[in-house]
Every structure is written in C-alpha cells, then in structure tokens.
Amino acid sequence: MSLDSHIERVLWTKFQISKRVTEIASEITNDFTSISPPPVIVGVATGAFLFLADLVRQIQLPVSVDFIRAESYGSGTKSTGAPTISMDLKLNVEGKHVILVEDIVDTGSTLSSLIAHLKSKGASSVSVCSFLDKPARRKVHFELVGDGKYYLGFECPDHFVVGYGMDFAELYRNLPYIGVLKPEYYKQFDLS
Ligand code: 5GP
Ligand code: MG
Ligand code: MG
C-alpha cells in the first residue's frame, strides 16, 4: 500500500509546488539583488525544511542559511499556546537582512514571537516567506521589520494539512505534496 492511500484530498501537487517555489525564488532574487550584505535565510524547524531546501537552490544570490525552532503545537492538531524558542540561531544577524522561512502561518503567534526575537538581535530587516497562510485563523497580527517583505506560496483553506515538511504527530513530513489526512489516520496517531 502506498503512502498516498493515507490522504483524503491533495490540495497542491508537487508540480504546482515546484512552479510556485520557482516564482517566489525569483521574486526574492530580484528584491535582494542590489542589497548588501546578502540575506540570511532562517528556516523555522522542522516544518520549513523542504520548502527551504527547494527555495534556496533557486535563489540566484550567495545567501546564508540557518535554522531556529519554536514550539507551539503538541503532537496533535491543537495549539498549546504561546510558542517558545527551543533552538536559537547559530549565526549573528545583527545588521543583517533576515528572511524567515515558514511552512504555514496559522494564528500568527509563532511568527510574531520569532520576528520580535530577530528584531531584538538587531536584524536590520525581517521578511517572511511562508509556503502557506490560513488567514481565517489569524489571532495575532505580525509586523515585518524595516523594509521586510511578505512572500507567500498559497492561501490555505481552514483544514489541518500535512506534507511538504508539515507533520501530524511528527509523521507525514516526507510527503512531496500537501494534503488532508483521512480521519482514520488522525484517530490512529492522535496522542493529545
Ligand atoms: P501559529 O503560531 O501561526 O498558530 O502556528 C504556526 C505553526 O503551527 C506552523 O508553523 C505549523 O508548524 C503549525 N501548523 C499550523 N497549521 C498547521 C496545519 O494545517 N498543518 C500542520 N501540519 N501544521 C500546522
Ligand atoms: Mg512552522
Ligand atoms: Mg507541527
């Protein structure tokens, strides 16, 4: 049985994803081409790992890459409240242009704490590049820093999605597309 049989509905195929990633990478290349120093791409672990890997390989600038980790979700589909930074940057971002790469913006609370954190470290601008955004669920408004821009892959309907880096109970991150799980698989693994 293939892993695809766990998925009820595919929202974006790997071909649609790849096309959109190419477009975003070229926007970033154009926006930062005359800016010095080149941007620091900060992936929000773990969910952004595939999006970041695909994106940076198409950005035509010598960028730096680092990761940061913020935890707000338990093992299930419900938020556990205010996120904490559980793994900080290795690179010094003081005076740097940071592009935060996220898998999905939901309530906005993870992004707003990460942006505040990068601002406190002296980043001269903070942009956000999120693969998905669920505007219907926004609770916390986030503000970019300096000349920061907002890059978005797709607007996501209000469903819990998995794949392309995004998990359910730490599983399914390896799906090469974005989909909604069949209910029986949530029941099987939901530990919350
Ligand atoms: P926020 O702080 O904006 O509420 O939540 C952001 C984080 O929650 C995302 O980075 C992601 O890790 C997780 N999240 C939000 N919505 C979904 C979803 O539909 N599927 C998955 N797998 N994770 C989600
Ligand atoms: Mg995330
Ligand atoms: Mg998660």
UniProtKB/TrEMBL annotation:
Domain Phosphoribosyltransferase: 17-168
Reaction(s) this enzyme catalyzes, per UniProt: IMP + diphosphate = hypoxanthine + 5-phospho-alpha-D-ribose 1-diphosphate
EC number: 2.4.2.8
Matching InterPro entries: HGPRT (IPR050408), Hxn_phspho_trans (IPR005904), PRTase-like (IPR029057), PRTase_dom (IPR000836)
Localization (cell): Cytoplasm
Keyword Kinase in annotation: no
Chief location bin: cytoplasm
Alphabetical keyword list: Cytoplasm, Glycosyltransferase, Magnesium, Metal-binding, Nucleotide-binding, Purine salvage, Transferase
Key word Transferase present: yes
Cofactor: Mg(2+)
Catalytic EC class: transferase
Pathway as given in its UniProt record: Purine metabolism; IMP biosynthesis via salvage pathway; IMP from hypoxanthine: step 1/1
Assigned protein family: Belongs to the purine/pyrimidine phosphoribosyltransferase family.
Name of the protein this chain belongs to: Hypoxanthine phosphoribosyltransferase
Biological source species: Hevea brasiliensis
